[in-house]
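FAQ: What does the model actually see?

It sees only this:
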Amino acid sequence: MEQALKYQLIKKCSTTKGRLGKITTPHGEIETPIFMPVGTQATVKTMTPEELKEIGAQIILSNTYHLYLRPGHDLVKEAGGLHNFMNWDRPILTDSGGFQVFSLGDLRQISEEGVDFRSHLDGSKHFISPERAMEIQNDLGADIIMAFDECPPYPCEYDYAKSSLERTTRWAERCKAAHKREDQALFGIVQGSTYQELREQSAREITALDFPGYAIGGLSVGEPKEIMHQVLDYTVPLLPEDKPRYLMGVGAPQDLVEGVARGIDMFDCVLPSRVARNGTLFTSHGRVVIKNAQYARDFTPLDPECGCYTCRNYTKAYLRHLFKAEEILGLRLATIHNLHFLLDLMEKIRGSLAEDRFSSFAEEFLIKYGER
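And it is asked to produce this:
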């Protein structure tokens, strides 16, 4: 059988570590760098699969922890896998559930064997090990699946970060041994908190296992942006050039630009859809909080430079009215816009990399967005 995933490095930026590439999966090609909308429970909130395609989504992410609890991976398998279940015929990535489990705090207990935890839904007891995480993800049937890792908090003591990353390595070995489907690509995850020595150790150990792709975990968990950039500066060069690099849980527009400049190929985050439902919208001139009174009689588009359905058809005044009236359409229009904004930003980034003008594009974007 052919490899489940192939990565082609097409072009490197001459002034940054940015790179243009292509990932081939059983459900289609993905042009990188790419942002992946998050469909936690086999749906990107408020959006249909057709709408996601319309705004340019090439791949979406679903969450192992949530789908394990509801409706259950056995049911999804019976439905023919996630692609059939949610009517999405393009690539899917599932995370391992590790981040969600470790976010449960007092509801979970970590051992070498795995993690005992209580469901946030009904308090029922569950256990996920590396082998169980592989079984669940094999049943879900995504194109790209993630090793079960331990995601340490920020801030984190050195000794804890070290023992955590070493456990992540042992769990990665177990995941690789337990992974059964040749049509799914299993990615390893580099941990080590904000310690350079530990990130280097983790990168050495995880890349030695020869996964088809690598993620950088344990960032965007509360650390200052400068520290995240520093960690990327010394971690990304340790990852193989001929395989995709995935920065987990990052999705603010400025962070995507900064991540690409440091050699990242893949991003995901609930941020754009979550803040959209709260009335915060990305525009080419920075964030807009649409509930603010200043937009009550603003009959201009949200972002005149945006070509999304929302900006083509509705005004800021109308969007504000929908949010104040708590109408569902407001959540939908805001989500369409925010996801379109990020997917369009990534398309522009790819265009600038193809023409080797990414540095100037990034600088202009960040100044306009209010980050310089």
